[in-house]
Amino acid sequence: MEFSTFIFYFFATVLVLAGLGVITARNPVYAALFLVLAFFSAGGVWLLLSAEFLAIVLIMVYVGAVMVLFLFVVMMLDIDFAHLREGFWKYLPMGAAVGVLLAVEMGLVLANGFGGKPMPAAAATITGQATPVACGNNICELGRVLYTEYAYPFELAALVLLVAMIAAVSLTLRRRSGPYSEKYISPESQVAVRHEDRMMLVKMAAEKEAPEGPAAPAGAEGQ
Amino acid sequence: MDAIKQMLGNLLEPLFGPLWPAVWALITIVALLAPLMLCVAYLTYFERKVIGAIQLRVGPNRVGPLGLLQPIADAVKLLLKEVIIPSGANKALFVIGPILAIAPSLAAWAVVPLDKGVVVADINAGLLYLVAIVSIEVYGIIIAGWASNSKYAFLGAMRATAQMVSYEVSLGFALICVLLISSSLNMTDIVTRQGEGTFASMGLGFLSWNWLPLLPMFVIYFVSGLAETNRAPFDVVEGESEIVAGHMVEYSGMAFALFFLAEYANMILVSVMTSILFLGGWLSPVGFMPDGFHWLALKTAFFLFVFLWVRATFPRFRYDHVMRLGWKVFVPITIVWVVVVAGWMMSPLSIWK
User: Fold this and answer.
1) Structure pTM?
2) A33, B19: Cβ pair inside 8 Å?
């Protein structure tokens, strides 16, 4: 038994337990943290397949960015747990049907994909198992394939992401107007401020003369 | 490294059998982390002395000669203090928070080469691994902030999330420029590539390092590193005058010290990375002097000094200005510079053939 076998079973066990934790945890913050652990363990398993680029990108994108924001939102929500569990029996048939369908689909893939037939050639190249590659490492080979054979699909995917990004920015872009407009201070104008703008020195005499004529007596209005 | 591994392997491999790779990994990790922890301890001493000198004070000078035992005394004091868990806190996550803060900042050191071949894991995706590990550093702060059940701590955690996720973008684009011109993600290759070129063959190695062609990226990388480690002037995460101490406000004793250790280990990491990526790592600046670890140590010490110098000089940024600098200044500049460098490499004027 090789040492990497120990590591595989360790990561696989943690992955399955973390996956169970995601769906059983009562507290959504715990569920999100279990999901982080699951991503991390999946990254470890991929590393063992010498797909280091995919493994590290999984951790960088999902653990480092997506789950941080997810956790951020979940922590700020004020969730009423009793209310959440109310409709359990009502939604159970629908949920069970979707679950069974997913299980059947995965079973079909597992039975036909890994049952007896060898892995498809493209997948084998990406995981770096078969076909000795020209540049010797996974990242280099992945880059070569992406920018030569799959250049158009890759650029199309990039374009779709760009459109999504612009849409997200324009959805949240807010120019304050109306009653709240005076609260908004542009950072540009604040950064560009000069000391002459901050304070004005006014030259004036040290003492004022008393105003002419006596002030009206306090009780004069009542008469 | 290989010779030591061979020698120890002959001696210990029969003893551990299939576990020998794990044992060897543990030995290298301890050999790296023990001196690192000592550096972290003395960085706090260095910081207090430097800031003391800048502010015309003496700094620590009571414990031991010149105050040199001060970090040891601080460590002992923190170890002996009680770790208080607030009654409303989420106990499990409250304890996990500091652990998650320090673990990534130590794990990142696995791919950092200290000299040619002296590295725990010489992997092809070294730079990518580093970016991934740095991006999970924020979890310690978020979890600590939420589990403390305190408004100040939670505000600190929210600021940390937004700030660290924002500055990772410009940090990543600066790294893309470096890996474009080195055409490798391996840190040893990145350093080796900086030792080649016209100026290096003339004996003026420091002019062929990456800082010259990538000068804007060099500056942006270091400033983003300041923001990423939550150091002044970007320390709004723990701004004492606004939110007391942010995510650390409920922590005491060694749990607090772990956040502190993580911050200082990250400072050293950013300094070492700036030296490796832009200042040629262990390469000697001039041809007639030999390369070696001492050059990397010298460059790292310089950047650490800049960290402290900046802290003693600049006032804290306001929170919205931190965000503005990250998204509206650094991100556009770095994106444009990636395109410029890529175009430069494909043009006949390319200096990286």
Assistant:
1) 0.80
2) no
